[in-house]
Design brief:
heterodimer, A: alpha/beta, 2 domains, B: mainly alpha, MetI-like fold, elongated, binds adenosine-5'-triphosphate, binds magnesium ion, ATP-binding (chain A)
C-alpha cells in the first residue's frame, strides 16, 4: 500500500483540543429515551471507541454528530461550532468535513468503485479528472487499485468496507465516524480493516469516532473508550484503564468475554464463609504491573498461594494483569494490604468448598 | 394475402408503432417525475409532504380507475385542443398518454421506493442535497426497475392502442377487428396476431437485455 496521500484537512478554528463537544444531548423516540443526557468530548487526533449493548443509543448518538438525527435537547459543538440549530442546507458543508462509514457499507450499486469513492468530490464540485485522480490515490491507500472499474457487487465484504473507507476519506475530512464498520465482517477481515483505520489515524492525524459492541475492536485500536448504556455515558477513560478497572456493571459485563474470568466450575462452588482457602482476584495495570509481583508475593507469603487463573494482556503498550489466586484464610488480610500498596485492586470472591 | 392487404398491414403496424412509441415516451417523461414526487413526498421521504402526497395519489387513482374506452371518448375535447383534431393516429396519442402516465408513475414509484434508505443516508452524510440524492442515488439505483417498468408500459400500450380504433386511429388492433373479425378474413387476423406477438416479444426481449446490462445489484 502506498502511503503518500495528500491531506489538507480543512482549517481548524481556535484549537481547544476537542473536535466534538456534547453537553446533555437528549433524543427520545416515543417512550424510549435513545439518548438520555449524553455529555462527551472527542479530542483532536484520537480514536474514541463508543461501546454499548444493542439499543443503547450508539447509532442515534453518532447520527446526531452529522445532523442525520436531530436531538431534542442539549448542545453539540463540532470544531467549536454549535450545530443543533442548523438547517439541512447549513449542515451540508459541515457534513463534507465529516466522513462516515457504515455497517452495511452503503455503496451505490450502479456506480463503479472509483465513482463511489469520487462521489463526495463530485458533490463538492470537483472536475471529473481531478476527482478520479483523487479516487485513485485513495484506492491505493486502501489497497484496491485493481478494483477501480469494478462494481461493488463484485467485491467481498472486506473489500466493500475498504471502498467505504476510501469514500469517507475522499474529501479529506477532519473527522471520521464509523458505525459498526466491522460488525458484518469475519475476524481476520476485521483485523485488517482496524489496522487500516489505525494506520490512517496515525499517518494522517485523523480523529476517529468508532462505534462498536465488540470490546475486541476497542481494545485493538481505540485510545479512549466511552461506555454507553440506556442512552447515558456510564464510564469513560483511556482504554487500558477502563479494561484494567472497569467500574460500571455494563462495562464489566461487556468485558467479560475478553478479560480472564474465574472458571465457572470454581465460581459455582464458592462459599461465602468457611474454613476453605480464600479465592480473590487481583487487578493490576500500568506502571504498577511492571514490577516482579509474584516474586514479591512469594517472599512475603511463604505460607503459599495458588494461582488459579489469569494473565497479563498489553493494551496501548500498558500491561493489564488480572489474576485469580487462592490462599489460606489467615494470610488474606496481609496479602490484600500488600498488593493494594502496589497499586492493585483486590476483590475477595469467596472460599473454596473442599479444603484441598 | 393480397398486396393491398399486405400494405394495409404494414401501414397498421406503423400506426401502432407511432401510437405506442409517442404515448410511451410521453408517459415516461411525465410519469417518472410524478413517481419521484410520490416517493419524495411520502412519509420519511426526502421532501416529506403528506398533503401533496395524498392529493397526487388521489389524482392518479382517479385517472387509473376510469376504463380506457371511456377515457378515450371523454378526452375528445381535450384532444381537439391539443392536436387540432379528435380522430386519427395522432389524436389517439393524447388519451393513450394520459392513461399511461399515471400507470407508469405507479410503476416508477415502486422501483424508486425500493432503493435502500442506507444509500440515501450515505449521500446525505456526504453533504449531498435533494437533487444529488435524486441524480446520484434514486434514479441510477432504480434504473433497472424504471426500464423494466417502461417495457411493461409499452406492451400494455400496444394492447390499449387496439381500442383507439374507435376514434379512427388505425393500427393493428383496428385492422384485426375490421377485417379479421367483422369480415371474417381469418388470414388477416392470423397475420395481425403474428405481428403483434413478434412485436411484444421483441420489446420484452430488448427491455430484458437492457435491464440485465444496467443491473449491478448482486
Ligand atoms: N427511528 C427510530 N424510531 C423509533 N425508535 C428508534 C429509532 N431509532 C432508534 N430507536 C430506538 O432508540 C434506541 C437506541 O437505538 P440505536 O439505534 O441508537 O441503538 P444502537 O446502540 O445503535 O443499537 P445496535 O447496536 O443494535 O445498533 C433503541 O431502543 C431503538 O429502538
Ligand atoms: Mg446501531
Amino acid at each position: 500500500m502506498n502511503r503518500h496521500v495528500s491531506w489538507t484537512p480543512a482549517e481548524t478554528t481556535a484549537d481547544s483540543g476537542d473536535v466534538i463537544r456534547l453537553a446533555d444531548v437528549r433524543r427520545r423516540f416515543g417512550e424510549t429515551a435513545a439518548l438520555d443526557g449524553v455529555s462527551l468530548g472527542v479530542r483532536r487526533g484520537e480514536i474514541l471507541g463508543i461501546i454499548g449493548r444493542s439499543g443503547a443509543g450508539k447509532s442515534t448518538l453518532i447520527r446526531c454528530l452529522n445532523g442525520l438525527e436531530r436531538p431534542d435537547g442539549g448542545s453539540i459543538e463540532i470544531e467549536g461550532r454549535e450545530i443543533t440549530g442548523l438547517g439541512e442546507a447549513a449542515l451540508q458543508p459541515l457534513r463534507r468535513r465529516i466522513g462516515m462509514i457504515f455497517q452495511h457499507f452503503n455503496l451505490l450499486s450502479a456506480k463503479t468503485v472509483e465513482e463511489n469513492v469520487a462521489l463526495p468530490l463530485k458533490i463538492e464540485g470537483w472536475p471529473k479528472a481531478k476527482r478520479l485522480a483523487r479516487a485513485a490515490e485513495l484506492l491505493e491507500l486502501v489497497g484496491l487499485s485493481d478494483k477501480a472499474r469494478a462494481y461493488p457487487s463484485a467485491l467481498s465484504g472486506g473489500q466493500k468496507q475498504r471502498v467505504g473507507i476510501a469514500r469517507a476519506l475522499a474529501a479529506s475530512p477532519a473527522l471520521l465516524l464509523s458505525d459498526e464498520a466491522t460488525s458484518a465482517l469475519d475476524p481476520e477481515t476485521t483485523r485488517s480493516i482496524l489496522a487500516l483505520l489505525k494506520d490512517i489515524n496515525s499517518k494522517l492525524g485523523l480523529t476517529i469516532l468508532l462505534i462498536t459492541h465488540e470490546m475486541e475492536v476497542v481494545r485493538n485500536i481505540a485510545d479512549r473508550v466511552a461506555v454507553i448504556d440506556a442512552g447515558r455515558i456510564v464510564e469513560q477513560g483511556p482504554v487500558w484503564q477502563v479494561f484494567a478497572t472497569p467500574k460500571a456493571e455494563t462495562t464489566k459485563s461487556l468485558l467479560s468475554g475478553i478479560r480472564p474470568q474465574l472458571p465457572a466450575h470454581i465460581a459455582q462452588t464458592l462459599l461465602s464463609e468457611g474454613p476453605g482457602d480464600v479465592v480473590l482476584s487481583i487487578d493490576i495495570a500500568g506502571p504498577a504491573a511492571t514490577g516482579p509481583l509474584f516474586q514479591d508475593l512469594s517472599k512475603a507469603f511463604p505460607g503459599g498461594y495458588r494461582l488459579i487463573h489469569g494473565g497479563v494482556d498489553h493494551i496501548q503498550k500498558q500491561p493489564v494483569g488480572r489474576f485469580f489466586i487462592a490462599l489460606p484464610a489467615a494470610s488474606t488480610a496481609g496479602l490484600v494490604s500488600f498488593v493494594e500498596r502496589l497499586g492493585a485492586q483486590v476483590e475477595v470472591l469467596g472460599h473454596v468448598a473442599d479444603h484441598a | 394475402m393480397s398486396p393491398i392487404m399486405l400494405e394495409l398491414l404494414v401501414r397498421s403496424l406503423w400506426e401502432t408503432l407511432v401510437m405506442t412509441a409517442a404515448s410511451g415516451l410521453i408517459s415516461l417523461v411525465f410519469g417518472l417525475p410524478i413517481g419521484l414526487a410520490l416517493v419524495a413526498t411520502a412519509r420519511g421521504g426526502i421532501a416529506e409532504n403528506l398533503a401533496v402526497n395524498r392529493a397526487l395519489g388521489a389524482v392518479i387513482n382517479g385517472f387509473r380507475s376510469v376504463p380506457f374506452i371511456i377515457l378515450l371518448v371523454a378526452l375528445i375535447p381535450v384532444t381537439r385542443v391539443i392536436v387540432g383534431t379528435s380522430i386519427g393516429t395522432w389524436a389517439a396519442i393524447v388519451p393513450l398518454a394520459i392513461a399511461a402516465t399515471p400507470y407508469y408513475a405507479r410503476i416508477a414509484e415502486v422501483s424508486l421506493r425500493e432503493v435502500e434508505r442506507g444509500l440515501i443516508e450515505a449521500v446525505r452524510a456526504m453533504g449531498g442535497n435533494r437533487w444529488t440524492i435524486i441524480r446520484e442515488v434514486l434514479i441510477p439505483e432504480a434504473m433497472p426497475g424504471i426500464v423494466a417498468g417502461f417495457t411493461v408500459t409499452l406492451v400494455t400500450l400496444i394492447g390499449a392502442s387496439a381500442m383507439a380504433g374507435a376514434i379512427g386511429a388505425g393500427g393493428l388492433g383496428d385492422l384485426a377487428i375490421r377485417y379479421g373479425y367483422q369480415r371474417f378474413e381469418t388470414a388477416v387476423m392470423i397475420a395481425v396476431v403474428a405481428v403483434l406477438i413478434v412485436l411484444v416479444c421483441g420489446i420484452q426481449w430488448l427491455g430484458d437485455r437492457l435491464v440485465a446490462r444496467l443491473d449491478h445489484r448482486n
